[in-house]
Design a protein that fits this description.
Layout: E1 2-4, E2 11-13, E3 28-29, E4 36-40, E5 44-48, E6 58-59, E7 64-67, E8 70-73, E9 76-78, E10 83-94, E11 105-115, E12 118-123, E13 128-129, H1 145-158, H2 161-166, E14 167-168, E15 170-172, E16 177-179, H3 186-189, H4 213-221, E17 234-239, E18 245-249, E19 255-261, E20 268-269, E21 272-276, E22 284-292
Antiparallel strand pairs: 1-2, 3-6, 4-5, 7-8, 9-10, 10-11, 10-22, 11-12, 12-21, 13-20, 14-21, 15-16, 17-18, 18-19
């Protein structure tokens, strides 16, 4: 029996593991009497094991999520050409423009990882500008005002009830917390599987995040000069060198591991979360972004 690749249209066998032309790996397919290992772009390893029954659907953890006639994929890393392609989705709404006539605007997210029916996503830009902590200058994520803001005000303003149901609770053992919305950690921002450079000290275009006009507007309200050195930097959730310092990513994409004071203004907020992709009514495919080193 012949079928067609949903990505490039090439004819493929229904039992094919991947398309010979574009190397798309399928998340769901029937594979009778098969127990083999396949590789994808020398990065992903797919272990397929035989399931009982000829019509059994084998769901694999391939970094690909099939929806409709499209595939949502983990970052596609081409080291030979120094490029990374991120699939994106629209999910939730938050103010991004000033005097746009809209209260809220769609939030665009980059997909960092696909695991089964779940996606790890990070905002494509800094959605706001806020201090890490406005209370006691805490550099601990668990007790920070920014964590409280993301998981209360932002969570309820940016997402409808149905959208909030699609956001998964995530355990963050490095900071001893469990959250719906969070910031990336030092180890995550240096994870090559997410398309980032493994060295924190090097410039990295993949780590760069612009700021929405709304975020820049809030920077100005904080009396931050538009050419302030903090501009275009964004917070991580990891402690810095001292008790009131928190790591951040600089405009160049370099990780500032020494850290800024938790009360610093003019630093962006770039939230991340895990979403249940099976709730396809609450998110929409937003194309892809190709970034060159």
């Amino acid at each position: 029996m012949v079928n067609f690749c949903l990505q490039c249209g090439r004819e493929i066998n229904t039992n094919a593991v991947l398309c010979d032309k574009c190397s798309t790996i399928y998340m769901m397919f029937s594979v009778p009497n098969l127990d083999k290992t396949y590789s994808h772009n020398k990065e992903e390893v797919l272990q397929i094991k035989e399931e009982s029954g000829d019509k059994e659907q084998i769901i694999s953890n391939t970094g690909v999520y099939q929806f409709g006639l499209k595939s949502l994929r983990s970052p596609m890393i081409d080291k030979d050409n120094n490029t990374v392609i991120y699939d994106c989705i629209y999910f939730g709404e938050y103010p991004q423009f000033i005097n746009s006539g809209k209260t809220r605007d769609p939030i665009k997210w980059r997909v960092l990882d696909i695991k089964g029916n779940k996606a790890f996503v990070i905002a494509d830009i800094c959605i706001d500008s806020r201090p890490f902590d406005i209370g006691y200058s805490e550099n601990r994520w668990k007790y920070s005002s920014l964590r409280a803001w993301l998981n209360s005000f932002f969570y309820h303003l940016a997402f409808t009830y149905s959208e909030r149901e699609a956001i998964l609770n995530t355990d963050l053992p490095d900071v001893n917390s469990s959250d719906k919305i969070f910031l990336l950690s030092y180890s995550e921002i240096c994870n090559e599987q997410y398309g980032f450079q493994s060295l924190a000290e090097c410039d990295d275009e993949m780590r760069y995040r612009g700021m929405s006009p709304y975020a820049i507007h809030n920077m100005n309200k904080e009396n931050t000069l538009i050419n302030n050195i903090n501009k275009r930097a964004w917070w991580l959730r990891t402690k810095g060198y001292d008790n009131d310092l928190v790591m951040a990513v600089l405009r160049s994409g370099k990780v500032y591991s020494y850290g800024w004071g938790a009360k610093s203004v003019g630093i962006g907020v770039c939230p991340a979360l895990w979403i249940n992709l099976d709730k396809i009514e609450v998110w929409k495919y937003a194309g892809d972004i190709q970034i060159h080193l």
